[in-house]
Amino acid sequence: MAKYDKADLERRMKGAVESLKGDLAGLRTGRASTQLLDPVTVEVYGAHMPLNQVATVSVPEPRLISVQVWDKSNIGPVEKAIRSAGLGLNPINDGNTLRLPIPDLTEERRKDLVKIAGQYAEKAKVAIRNVRRDGMEALKTDENKKEISEDERKRAEGDVQKLTDEQIKAVDDALAHKEKEILNK
User: What percent of the chain lies above the pLDDT cut of 90?
Assistant: First the structure.
């Protein structure tokens, strides 16, 4: 078992929060954002590639995303990938560029997005709790090996719990902000 390393635990917990923020940025809120297409992968040249490796994604207008595909032979696969990504977007193919108008969100779609955001947040919390568990186990191991005293272990466990609470709060804050953005526009 690894030795207790507070900096490593903090790095891993903050990583879970940053990952959540990336996931939340990809949720559609009625405004165009290039991050919306981050999860899209395209099957080209016999491999699955992220969309941003085969095309330039830009936002020329607040409610429009433009996808400029570099190799014209890949327009079809890119269009198909965007349609099947479950983002509720219908690309308009003008031969050179795909235009993605961002439709208004229905109340039902907003509720779905809030639910998805909640699932992302729960996933991040589970990751943070797993890191906490690893830290607590490392502390017990260090104590059993007589590398630290019981008092040191208890003090360090308090630090780990405080760190966990801070990161869980960061997750809750990010979720609350995203829910407000989705529901209020």
Answer: 36
**Residue 33, by phi and psi: left (phi above 0), alpha (psi -120 to 50) or beta?**
beta
pTM, two decimals, is 0.67
Q: Which two tokens stand for residue 174?
A: 């990010």
When pLDDT is cut at 50, 70 and 90, the band that residue 2 belongs to is low
* Contact in structure between 41 and 51 (CB atoms under 8 Å): yes
What pLDDT score was predicted for residue 47?
A: 87
Question: Residue 6: how many CB atoms within 10 A of its CB?
Answer: 13
Paired sense of beta strands 47-50 and 55-61, if any: unpaired
- Which residue, chain included where needed, has tokens 């996933």? 123
| Dist CA 102 CA 62 (whole Å) | 9
Tokens of 57: 């994604």
* 67, 37 Cβ separation under 8 angstroms: yes
- Both tokens of 66, joined, read 């433009």
Provide the token pair at 142: 């260090």
Query: How many angstroms separate the CA atoms of 138 and 135, rounded?
Result: 5
Select from 168, 9, 14, 144 the least CA-distant residue to 152. Answer: 144
